[in-house]
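tmp note - Transposase
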Amino acid sequence: MASGLRHERHSVSDLKMHLVCVTKYRRKIFTNESLELIHKSFVEVAKKMDFQILEFNGESDHIHTVMGATRKSEIGV
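out:
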């Protein structure tokens, strides 16, 4: 059974972040193609900065992403 904890040399962590990005005035500007491009960009950045995209979805006026990171990740410190 996986606990979801990240075991590093000197720490054990379970850091999760929920990021919501909303368009100005909730304008409906995101298309399926733009959401796919944003998701691809998030995955590329996640690989470079040592965190995971656990969940990503969105609609025409906002996106949601849940990220998991270690303490040493630049986004969590």
